[in-house]
Amino acid sequence: xxxxQLGPTIDSVSAxxxxxxxxxxxxxxxxxxxxxxTIAAIHLAAELGVSLIDIPPTTAAPAALExxxxxxxxxxxxxxxxxxxxxPRADRPTTAIRSRMLDAxxxxxxxxxxxxxxxxxxxxxxxxxxxxxxxxxxxALHQRGDVAAVGLSNIDCQRLAEARxxxxxxxxxxxxxxxxxxxxxNVLPYCLEHRIGVLGYDPLCRGLLSGRYNDYRALEEIGAGxxxxxxxxxxxxIDTVRQLKAVAEERHKSLIQLALSYxxxxxxxxxxxxxxxxxxxxxxxxxxxxxxxxxDEFARVDQILDARARQLEQ
Length: 314
Known about the structure:
By secondary structure, the protein is α/β, with parallel strands linked by helices. The chain has one domain: NADP-dependent oxidoreductase domain (TIM Barrel). It has twelve helices and ten strands. It has helices at about 35-45, 60-70, 95-110, 130-145, 155-165, 180-185, 185-195, 215-220, 230-250, 255-265, 280-290, 295-314; strands at about 5, 10-15, 15-20, 50-55, 80-85, 115-125, 145-155, 170-175, 195-200, 270-275. Strands 3-4-5-6-7-8-9-10 form an eight-stranded parallel barrel, surrounded by five helices. Helix 1 (about 35-45) crosses helix 2, helix 1 runs parallel beside helix 11 and helix 10 packs across helix 11 (about 280-290). The longest helix is centred in the last third of the chain and has 20 residues, at about 230-250. The protein is globular, with a radius of gyration of 19 Å. About 45% of the residues are buried.
C-alpha cells in the first residue's frame, strides 16, 4: 500500500480508503450489505494496509458512524476517520453557525465513540451560511483540538480561494473518476500549488465503472444515481464503459483496475475513498489500486473520454 500526506496536518494516509457511503452497494440485485459484512470489510481493509475511513453525509450517515464506531476497536492499526457534514439548519434564525457546528460534531463524536475526528469537511458549502462565518466555525473546531484537519467538500477553485481568505483549508473532498474529470483539471492543480490535501471520492461512479451494468435500462431503474444514470447520459455512459472495458481486457486488466489507476497517481491527489461494504470488494479494490497504466493506455482512455465529452457538448 502507498502512503501519502493529506494536507499540512496529516502526515500519512493510505492511497486507498474505505467509503461508508450509505453502507450498501448501489446494486438492487445484491441489496444492502449487512453490518457484520461491513465490519468484516473494514477489518480486512486495515489488515491489507488501508488506514482511512470516509463517511459522507448521506441519509444513512448516522448508521454509518455507529457502525464504524463498532468496527474501530477491532482494528489492529490506527485508522484515520474523515467525516463530511452539511451545515445544520438553525432551529432559530439567531443560532450561530459555530454553535450549530459544535452540536453536529458532538453528535459525530458520540456515534463514532471517538473524542477526535481526523478530517472534518463541510459538504457543498454553498448554503445560506456566510463563508466567513463558516470558516470561523471550522477554525474554532480545529483550534479546540476536536479535529486534526478541516476542509470543504465539492467546492470550485473560486469559492475555495474565497474560503481561504477567512480561515485554514487543510483538505478538499471532491468527486474524481473517469467520468468526472473536472477536479483533475481544476481543483487538483490549485490544491497542489497551495499545499491543500485532496480526498477523492466515488472513483467508480456509483458502481457504473465497476462493470456491473451492461444496459442503460438497468441504470435508469436505480433512480437515485443522478444524471449519469438517466436518459441520453445513461446510454452514452454505457457505451463509454463498454469501450473502456474493451481496452482493459485487451491489456489484461479489469475495468476497476483501469478506473482506479487512471486517477490514483494524479498530481495533487492524496487519497481515494472507494465504497466498500464486503470483504470480497476490499481485496479486489486494494489489488486494483496497485496497478499502473502505461502512457499508451492513458492515451487510449483519454481518446474515449474526450469523445464522450464532445458528445455531451452537442
